[in-house]
Amino acid sequence: MEKLKINGGRKLRGETRVQGAKNACLPILAAAALGESCIIHNCPDLTDTHAALKILESLGVCTEFENNTVRTHSCGSLSSCRIPDGLMKEMRSSVMFLGAILSKCKRAEITYPGGCSIGARPIDLHLEAFRKMGAEIEEEGDKIICTIDEIKSAKINLGFPSVGATENIMLLSAVSNAEIEIDNAAAEPEILDLQNFINSMGGNICSGGRKVFIKGVKELGNTEYKIMPDRIAALTYLSGIAACGGMGKLNSVRPEHMVLPLKILERGGSEIECGDDFIIMKAPSRPKSYGKIITLPYPGFPTDAQAIFMAAASRGRGKSSFKENIFENRFRHVSEIRKLGGRIETEGNEAEICGRRRLHGEVLTAKDLRGGAALVVAGLAAKGETIIENIGYIDRGYENIERSFGDFGAEIARVDESYGREIHS
Ligand code: EPZ
Question: What is the pLDDT of residues 377-413, one digit of tens each?
Fold first, then answer.
């Protein structure tokens, strides 16, 4: 497995274009199975994107990926109603295809997606909602078999505003004779992107104030659509500039998707200018305290940005604290940042960081996607050489993280897995 080699401790200056949003692309690819021919622009070139395309192909949908544009063509029915076990294991968010397959085939078979390193990640809310919509669900070991005759109208109140459950309900009901109301729905920008994509194919979904209304239609047609920018990738690059000091411009972003995190960067002393599709940030050599950051469903502070902001705070002046309310095991980057000299104490789902001016390079191991990105941010701020192993996690969510940070003048490169063994062994 390749590694990332960073020579850190220098200010960043430059500009980069932000990729399309992974967490919009994946449910939109699932929705493409409901339509006929789709042209989807600004798809990020990620391992997760290609895993989703493999799932579509396994269902009989023809796909192609070229220059961040995906073309899909499904000729009416799907050729299969099951997701191969290997693909389910490769990407747990394959569960997103459940609603689309059940809608098209009236039957769907998947293996339990299982948890991942950040938490158990059950799908009880998805299955409970499907039952309310008329689905029969059998669980045999780690297999889930769903069948449905007629999708029934229902009013579904989600116990937690789950992003995946909200999206799966939309995917199951978009083509139906049913009217669905979701209360306490997730309100992340990626949900609206999925809604707009489905409506661009002839769907009838509207949303607002934590409610989603789906009026099922007879069929969905063709579309040409552009995926929204990735707000978490954008915040990753801004966290790097905050951690190192310097100045940067992000192009192809939607500042309105990250109002609270931008306010927190300003609290840390950065000056931020926003346009319709760009952000310019000027950061002091070290951030001031960010105060207390509490992760919450949107529009609260995004859990996916918790680790990257903690990395920036580890070089801050003074103390910052975090409370992680969304996932139960999302501090796995802490032990790695401590290796660089970061002073972080955790208790349960809370962490307190006492920033320090000097962090030093080390060999680190990525343990999940956003935690891995946080190690890049911290490594850029640490003096000397940092090597990051297990970077396959990072490639699941970032097209080419070293090129993006390289656009800001960072000394970061992908090296062979044998690199550094002699130096750091
Ligand atoms: C989506 O995951 C994102 N992934 C995650 O991004 C993101 O962190 C998360 O939403 C929250 O914003 C994609 O969109 C592909 P949830 P999802 O259902 O849908 C619990 C990244 O790094 N829950 O909102 O799985 C669950 O365990 C990834 O890009 C249930 O208990 O998130 C978690 O604690 C990581 N039962 C909380 O809700 C359920 O049936 C939030 O989960 C479903 C969820």
Answer: 999 999 999 999 999 999 999 999 999 999 999 999 9
Chain mean pLDDT for the chain = 96
Nearest 5°: phi and psi at 78?
-85, 150
Buried/exposed 229-254: b ≥16 CB within 10 Å, e otherwise: bbbbbbbbbbbbbbbbbbbbbbebbb
pLDDT at 424 over 80: no
Tell me the C-alpha to C-alpha distance, in Å, between residue 81 and each of 106, 146, 307, 312, 357.
8, 10, 37, 45, 55
Residue in 177, 180, 225, 229 with CA at minimum distance from that of residue 198: 225
**What percent of the chain is predicted at pLDDT more than 90?**
91
Rg, C-alpha atoms of the chain? 22
Half-sphere exposure of 277 (CA within 13 A, CB side): 9
Give me the helices (H) in 205-292, please: 231-244, 259-267
Q: Per-residue confidence at 421, pLDDT binned at 50, 70, 90?
A: low
Phi, psi of 139 (to 5 degrees): -115, 115
User: What single string gives the DSSP state of each residue in 83-149?
Assistant: --HHHHHH-GGGGGHHHHHHHHHSEEEEE----BTTB----HHHHHHHHHTT-EEEEETTEEEEE-S
Tell me the average pLDDT across 371-378. 98
Give distance in angstroms: CA of 126 to centre of ligand 1: 11
Give backbone dihedrals phi and psi of 281, rounded to 5 degrees, phi first: -130, 135
Active site residues: 116
Ligand 1, CB within 6 Å, residue ranges:
22-23, 26, 93, 119-126, 160, 162-165, 186, 188, 303-304, 326-327, 369-370, 397
Atom 34 of ligand 1: nearest residue by CA position: 327
pLDDT at 418 (0 to 100): 85
How many Cβ atoms are within 10 Å of 57's Cβ, its own excluded? Answer: 14
One-letter amino acid at 86 equals G
